[in-house]
Amino acid sequence: MKNLVILISGRGSNMVAIADACAAEGWDARIAAVISNRPDAAGLDHARAQGIATAVVNHRDFDGREAFDTALAQVIDGFSPDLVLLAGFMRILTPGFVQRYAGRMLNIHPSLLPAFPGLHTHRRAIEAGCKLAGTTVHVVTPELDHGPIVAQAVVAVRPDDTEDTLATRVLAMEHRMYPQAVRWWVDGLLDHTDDGRIVLRTGESQLLMDGAPDNPGDAP
Ligand code: GRF
Fold it and tell me: Of 23, 26, 76, 198, whose CB has the highest number of CB atoms within 10 Å?
């Protein structure tokens, strides 16, 4: 049974999607804890309601990133994690923290990486005139929003999209894709290639398309 520790900062809808899939599909895993750097994160209430252990490590209580990351790692390690999942965790991590969980920490980022690392991804995609947007699950490496790609989901950008409408459609894809990607990891189905990519041993697609197989007809 694998121990999953999920880090959040806010709403926690991806965390809920993962917890729901884990329970419904009977994964060989459990959500050992949900940890937030913000005491008021709404996701904490959802986790508690599901009987999941929660903890808060408030970044405001620490003087600098190193001290915060050290304290956070202590709390994480108290739950004996096999895999650490960043799900809307809005903190830049120190290299030492990333190294501690090397190869066993995943993140979801709301863009088609390597395009648009950082914030305001949907606004930037619309402003750039992108016709496709999406989201990426990747292995966490020291560089922000980088690292080997585990899965991507794409949605068409519609001419009348706003940041909010695009974000809503991308989030719906995240809730399908992140649990799937975590399950691949739990089931031991992800292999590293010699050139640093991650491939799925089953040969299944690591790309999820909105409305597939009718995706092109999806957009107006
Ligand atoms: C998601 O869009 C995720 O890609 C990004 O932050 C958002 C978190 O949403 N990293 P939620 O807290 O899971 O609802």
Answer: 76
